[in-house]
Design goal:
TIM Barrel; alpha/beta
């Protein structure tokens, strides 16, 4: 078996929002502004078209355009990880082809929508992708959306594939994260955490970094937390994690909408002057009253 692809990423990865104009077209100017802001804040990578990027609401051609424009804008300053999740393998491979053409560094895939899958089918699915893409692949565990968990034992099997180099876990289940961390010992396979509320705990359990939505807006919060952990300053880590949790509670829970995280983050980005609060249909942006509530909340955040 060939040696595992080597791409050692650590630090904070920004799961990029997809800024939209009111007519739901891509806002190129806002895209550039947000990318430049995240990079200036010290993030190690830009990751478009994930959950935070609303990928499931966009056509294949729209996603291909996003890949091209993100890679052009980043222009090699940090790594670029491209989400290639789709409901059929053919579209997944088309996204991966564009990622390679645009000189992205790696691709990321969660499970396709609609059908429930057995663990054997999950393993076969990711193996098929890894066998047919030229960029290294990160697995993406997102059971809150896919309704399926990639079992730790399945992760352990897939970690042995030379082109599968890591897992982003957005389950929010730190018991699961700890089990995977202990079970998977494959050299060159790295773990990253999605929910920013658990960033500090994940780092203590062996994560190489976080894929944290709030880094679109306040990248330095998350970068400082990671750097404090790297320096062994656990008191500062805990202090910063408390700050991140307070931000999350203030911004992501304004409504009882099941997509309140996306509503709150995009609205906050709008209030801070980065983009419109527009979400892609069928999701709806915050209403005017909630926007005003958030505006008051954000007065406490700089």
């Amino acid at each position: 078996m060939p040696e595992k692809t080597n791409l050692e990423l650590s630090g904070i990865i920004t799961p990029l929002i997809t800024p939209l104009r009111p007519d739901f077209t891509l806002d190129d100017g806002a895209l550039a502004k947000i990318i430049n802001h995240a990079i200036a804040g010290g993030v190690s990578s830009i990751f478009p078209l994930g959950t935070t990027g609303e990928f499931a609401s966009f056509s294949l051609n729209f996603q291909l355009d996003v890949i091209k424009k993100v890679c052009e804008q980043v222009n090699g300053r940090v790594a670029v990880l491209i989400s290639i999740t789709a409901s059929c393998v053919e579209d997944t491979l088309k996204l991966a082809e564009m990622a390679e053409k645009c000189n992205a560094d790696a691709v990321v895939a969660t499970l396709p929508f609609y059908f429930s899958l057995s663990q054997d089918e999950i393993s076969s699915y990711f193996t098929q992708i890894a066998d047919n893409v030229n960029l290294p692949l990160y697995l993406y565990n997102m059971p809150g959306k896919t309704k399926i968990n990639i079992a730790p034992e399945t992760v352990n099997v897939l970690a042995k594939h030379p082109n599968i180099i890591g897992l982003k876990d957005s389950s929010g289940d730190m018991g699961y994260f700890g089990t995977v961390s202990k079970l998977v010992e494959e050299p060159g396979f790295s773990l990253y955490v999605g929910p920013e509320e658990e960033l500090a705990e994940a780092l203590k359990l062996g994560a190489k970094g976080g894929v944290n939505g709030g880094s679109n807006l306040f990248p330095k919060f998350y970068v400082e937390l990671f750097n404090a952990f790297e320096k062994g300053d656990l008191a500062q880590v805990d202090e910063l994690q408390t700050k991140v949790r307070a931000f999350s509670a203030a911004v992501y829970n304004l409504t009882d909408n099941p997509n309140n995280y996306l509503q709150g983050l995009k609205a906050a980005m709008s209030i801070k002057g980065f983009c419109e609060p527009t979400l892609a249909p069928p999701l709806k942006a915050l209403g005017s009253a909630d926007m005003e509530r958030l505006r008051i909340v954000l007065n406490d955040w700089t």
